[in-house]
Model the fold of this input.
Amino acid sequence: MRLGGCLAAVENNERKRVMKVLSSGHRYELASFEGRAPAQVLQFIEKRHNLAAPPAFHTVVDGTTNEEVLAVLIDRMVYLQAKCPCRENVHAIEHMQMALGWLERRTTVRKTQGVEGTDKPHKCVCGCEDVATPAVQPEPPVQGEVAQTPATGGGAGPATEAPGGAPAPEGGNAAAKVKVKAKRKSKQ
Done:
């Protein structure tokens, strides 16, 4: 179910946060938690084909990356874990670190194979057969509509297994890992 254009929905007297897609894949409006502050815009870097030098891309709009946003989220969750520790925080941190590790690995492989910054596919190094066609492809949200996430009632939770069955790469914020591991040891 899509919640077209809403910034927030109220259900069972509990405020649900909802983001709005302004430009699919590039620009999002994020609702403030309490609804009193103005919405914030998250702008990702936007690249298009460089017609003068195909298959290369050139930057149309500068912005952040998935890796930067994940690093921020990891740092925030480590901070929150220190204030109010729980198992769910630890799992969230671990999965975000895993996602960051996969993205960093992808970039390294693409650079090594000389295809970074182009639309050319890279050869998978984890042993899976078809890197371009994952088993599950989520439907992208329509521009101007709200993306479906577990928090808004759509989609599944975080992946529990690494792509292609390969071991997940280590990734992310080393300080976050140390703090999470230290918390685990102190609880044992």
Q: What stands out?
A: The helical segments are 66-83, 87-112, 174-187. The first strand starts at residue 8 and ends at 11. The chain has one domain: 8-126+140-187.
